[in-house]
Amino acid sequence: MSIRKLLLCSTVLPLLLTGVGRADDMASADRDSPAVRGGRDDSEDDGPPPTLTLAQFKKAVAKVQMPGFQRMPELAAGAGLGLILVGENESGVTIMGHGLRTGEQFEKGAAGKLSRFKHQGHEAFFAELTDDEGEKMALLIVQYPEHKMSLMITGKPVMSRAELMKLLAQVEL
User: Fold this and answer.
1) What residues contact 41, with CB distance under 8 A and at least 6 apart?
2) Distance of alpha carbon 145 from alpha carbon 103, whole angstroms
3) If you count Cβ atoms within 10 Å of the first and of the last residue's Cβ in the chain, which end, N or C, has fewer?
């Protein structure tokens, strides 16, 4: 999954779920994006979906909260799982469980722009990126091979690594 696709999914999906955006808005944003075509891109393979069920994901993110942000219902979309927190002024946080290869593809695509570290024995990456509109955002990805999952936490506008780590600390996997 390319950085552009990750950015698109993290910005368009919250708008649709909160009713701010409409399906035709998303389609006009990028007709060929995987978000428009059901989350899949035929040219890339995200690998098998996470082995976590939606019920297990809901339990893992049950305690996630952030002052000033409203939780949306957890969701299963395509081969992924997600939780979205919506704030004021178009701010938002997404916590998404994607196939394990998503993290590997991100690592290749963002080489030189990310910092690597370990989180409770799991490989993890942090990066600050700029989307196509010049807006900065932050990404944190933790690899959970035992669940065949890359857990991705995004914050827009940009959030610090420490802020994203506070959210990660609330996820119980």
Assistant:
1) 1, 5, 34
2) 11
3) C
Q: Which residue do the tokens 């600050």 mark? A: 128
Neighbours of 79 (CB within 10 A): 17
Beta bridge partners of 93: 85, 155
Residue whose C-alpha is closest to residue 41's, from 75, 12, 79, 1: 1
**Cβ-based neighbours of 80, under 8 Å, separated by 6 or more:** 39, 49, 50, 96, 97, 98, 99
Write out the chain's pLDDT in tens, 173 residues.
333 444 444 444 433 333 333 333 333 333 333 333 344 443 356 677 888 889 999 999 999 999 989 999 998 877 789 999 999 887 889 999 988 877 667 666 665 678 889 999 999 989 887 777 887 878 899 999 999 999 999 988 888 999 999 999 999 98
* Domains of the chain with bracketed CATH: 46-170 (3.40.1000)
